[in-house]
Structure formats: C-alpha cells, structure tokens
Amino acid sequence: MPPQKDTEDSLYPTALSILNNTFGHSAFRGAQWDIVDHMSQGGDALVLMPTGGGKSLCYQLPGLLRRGTAVVISPLIALMQDQVAALKQLGLAAAALNSSIEGEAVNRLERAFANGELDLLYIAPERLMMARMLELLDQTPIALFAIDEAHCVSQWGHDFRPEYLQLSVLHERFPEVPRIALTATADPQTRQEIITRLKLEKARLFVASFDRPNIRYCIVDKLDARAQLLRFIEEDHPGDSGIVYCLSRRKVDETAHWLATQGVRAIPYHAGMDTASRSKNQMRFQREEGIVVVATIAFGMGIDKPDVRFVAHLDLPKSIEGYYQETGRAGRDGAAADAWMSYGLADVVQQRRMIEQSDAGETFKRVLYTKLDALLGLCESAGCRRVHLLHYFGEVSQACGNCDNCLNPPQTWDATEPVRKALSAIYRTQQRFGAGHLIDVLRGKKTERITQWRHDTLSVYGIGTDIDEATWKTIFRQLVSLGYAKPNHEAYGALELTQSSVAVLNGSQPVSMRRVIAALKKGSKAASSNQSSLTASQTKLLNELKDWRFLQAQEQAVPAYVIFNDATLLQLVTQVPQSFEALSRIVGIGAKKLERYGHAILEIIRTGSQ
Ligand code: ADP
Ligand code: ZN
User: Fold this and answer.
1) What local confidence, expressed as pLDDT, does residue 98 receive?
2) With a threshold of 0.90, does the pTM exceed it?
C-alpha cells in the first residue's frame, strides 16, 4: 500500500510512521525532521550535509507527504538507477527518465507520471529542460523539485555541469512548487553560487555538522608506502570494498597491477582510460563486493556506494577540502570505516612543485599554498585529527577517541639540536642538495656524490650518526612542512633555508616535532562494530547472509546493498532476531523488506545458529 499523503498541520506522526515502516529507520537523524517539515509545508531549502548524512530522505519523505510526484534532478544516470532500485525495494513507485531508456518505455513512463502514479521521478537535467518535458510538468501535480548534487552549478568547481545553470527555470515556471537543493560541498563560495544561480535567496539554509563519527582518521609516515598499504588492507580490510587514491595515472596503473599480484581484487580508474573500461570498472566497483579501486581524483562524484569500508591516500591531496571530500566516500552506511593516508617529504616537495610550476597567477598560487599548508598542519598535528578537521570547517568539537592521535597519542620531542644540524648541512652544501644527500652527509656516509663534491671535508659531515636514517627523513619532512626549509623547484627539489631558519640556527627558536612511531607498526582496527570484532559463529552467519544477499542481488540485477546494507547485516548477526517483530526493529528493515525477505532471514538465522 502506498504511504498516506497528508496535508494536516502536524505531520510528525505520519512522517515518523513512514520513516519507521517504509524506510525502516527508527528515528530522524540530525536536521532531517526540520527539513522534512519545512519542505512538506511548501518552503524552499538549501541543505549542506556531508556525504552519508542522509540527504535523500530530506526530499523523499516530503515527496510522499505532499500531493503529486517528487521530481528529483540528478546528474548521473548510474546513481539514479541505483536510487530507483533501492526505492522500489521499499515498495515505492519510483522511476528514472534519462538517455538510457527509449521508445515505448519512455511513453509508458510519461503516462504513468501524468496520471500521478509515481511517488518519485528521477530525471537528468538535460531531459528536464526539453520542451516536451516541461509541458508535461505543467499538467502534472508536482510535490517538489529536488536538485541533488547542487554544487554542479558552480563554474569553479570540478563537477560543473552547464545544464545545471538552466535549472533557474524551475523557479520561474513553477513558482508554487517548493525546491530543495542538496550538496556535500561545504565551502562558502560554492554555497553562495548555488543560492544565486538557482535563485534560492529565500530558501532556508540547513547546515548539518560535517562530522563523520564512524570514519577513523589515520595518517602514517611514509616508509614503504606500498607495503604499508598492503598491510593495512590485508590486516584491517580483507575482502572489503575500498578506494585508493594516487596522484598520477601511471601510479594508479602500477599500484592497481601490483595490488592484484598480491591477491587484492584491485582495478584502476583514471581519466586517461577509454570511456568503456572506465565505466566498466566503475560499475564493477558499484555492483560487486570487495573490489578495491585505485584511482586519481577523477573517480569521484559518481560513487554512491554506501559500503566503502576504507579510503586510502597513497599521495598527499591538495587541500583539506579535497581530503575530506575523498575520505567522505567511506562508510556512508554508518558502519565503521577507515580513512588512511601515508605521507612523506617527497609528497610535500611534489605538491609544492606542482603549485610553483602551474599556470596560476600569483594570487591564486598563494591561495593554493595556504590550502596545502593547512593540510600539512593536519598531517603534522599531534592532537585529535577530527577536532582539527572540524575546526577547519568552523565547528568546535572534543577529542574524538576514534583517530590515530587519540588512540595512540604521538609523543613530541625537542628536535632543536638535530634541526640546527640539518639546517647547517643545507647551508654548508650551498643549498643545492635534496634531503637524501643531506642525510648521507649528516650520517657520514661514503657515497660517490659525497666524494665528488668533497662533502666529507665539511664540518657537518658525520655529525648526525646518532640518529637513524628513517628519523632523519621525518625530520626533514617536518622541516619543510613547518616552513624551516623549502624546496627549490628549479634545482630538482634542493632544500633552501627560509626566513624562519635563521632564528633556529642562532638558537633563539626551539623546535618541537612529532616522534615517529616504529616502522610499519600495525594499526589498531577500526571501531567496534567492524567485522573484525565478531566471534567465529557471528562471522559464519554474516557470510551466510552475504551469500544469500548476493544471490538475491543477482536475481534482481541490483547492487547487493540495495537488498540490505552491511550495517543491517551486522545488526542481524549481533542481535540475532528470532521473530518478525524483532526483525522489524532492525535498522534498514521496513515493512516491505520484512514482508519480502523476513522468512528467508529468519530461516538463515535459525539454521545458522544451530
Ligand atoms: P547522502 O545522500 O547524504 O550521502 P544517503 O541519503 O545516501 O546520504 O544516506 C546515507 C545512509 O544513511 C543510507 O544508507 C541511509 O539508508 C541511511 N539513513 C538515512 N537516514 C537515516 C536515519 N534517519 N536513520 C538511519 N539511517 C539513515
Ligand atoms: Zn581524535
């Protein structure tokens, strides 16, 4: 039975009952109810919520509460199709209109829409703008317009879609239909652009907290990046879906290939691949379980997979915004997930070089340097990563207990003496050498280069034998990120002194640094609801449920998470419901899914727990 439409003043009881029975959620999350209430009463809204925050419900539910069909504008066909599949599983009348359907199917769909048979219609922006479609909209009752991924109107953003600019038509042509624009992009410029371009000046703004409590942040010193990554995947995420970000296409290909030879189901994704292989790989990631995509940041907006268990950065991103957006793709289902990054001196040098050598003007370069420095501040911070991240987005918070620094507080040490030695070495070698050679000099090595340049005759030669090579590397990295030295990009990353070096050299400025935790130290596992904390029999049951889910998904040709997501399966194995009543209390099991899958699940639990 379709949910009841209601135009009464207090919608709360009806809304809650749809939330419970249709969507299978026990309570509204964050600002969801306020938004649903506001939309249901015909207001316009701009919603800024992090990925995984639960944006869809903010237009789906008012769409059900209001008379007419909710029209959802969405930029990506693959996304639409999965959303529609998920809504159908909930027993709702949803459909998508885009270039992938043709002929009679289009007519049928349009008729159903015109007859008011649809709860939700997903549509691509270019399709919406067609004269025929606009006429159809004129004649059909519309509950609301939802503009998903609204930051696509931003001409300065990397997801710009020109068709989005035309969406201001909605306001002019259908002034009485409420509009809701949604995005996970937080910065003030984008927000302002959305408001202006979509004419949302009067819309109520809802800004949710950007915290993603289920994501565990961890930034490690880069020693042997590949080995560290493999270890992280094997120990913490065997068989999980994940994304590994690299800076260059070549590194993407090499890393994917190497991981595959190590037994990880890794596939590449970057803009240099032909369109067919690219969409094939994206589809595999979206549909299959346990695929690791190694990608450049070209792999982005099209990903709407809720059960990505980790996002790893093998190279340094450009800014905290970038880092947060990329890591935000992990754990959208609310179950524990990891954001892991390895970072070393070469990353800092490389990012600085890219800015230096870019075509950007001086002002813009300064912006880029500032953003990079903010990210380096996060990397070198000894305090809670989450507090640091949220502070950057203007939120005040408490130490989280779920990041590397909270779980394993790094020690700091007085590095003034070694730093002075390092700066002297830079100075004595005419500021013409990179960290590798400088470390050889400090450690008194006999290399060809040292002999050739007669660096064994310098006063700094061999004054740093008390510190091992790995530690020296982290000292040099921190020197650069703290601004006590800088790479000269015309001289292949040779390190030079800076203004701030002087005070350290003359002894008036002490330097404190993070102590590096022993090489390749095993990371502690992600939060407690993770698969790794299950007992053997729970793991067995989980695997049985996953096998069953896989078959269901195959049969219906939908992604597995559309049947049930990981968080729901985990609840099933930890709570072991024995009745329909108990099943209905599991988050993610609404009336329709209970009816359709309840028997099968109870049967698996019954036989599995024997
Ligand atoms: P977004 O579009 O903001 O990235 P989604 O709308 O895809 O997020 O929701 C992310 C996940 O959170 C989904 O798995 C969804 O089922 C779940 N979710 C949304 N609202 C709630 C709620 N009130 N209670 C529990 N889970 C929710
Ligand atoms: Zn923390």
Assistant:
1) 84
2) no
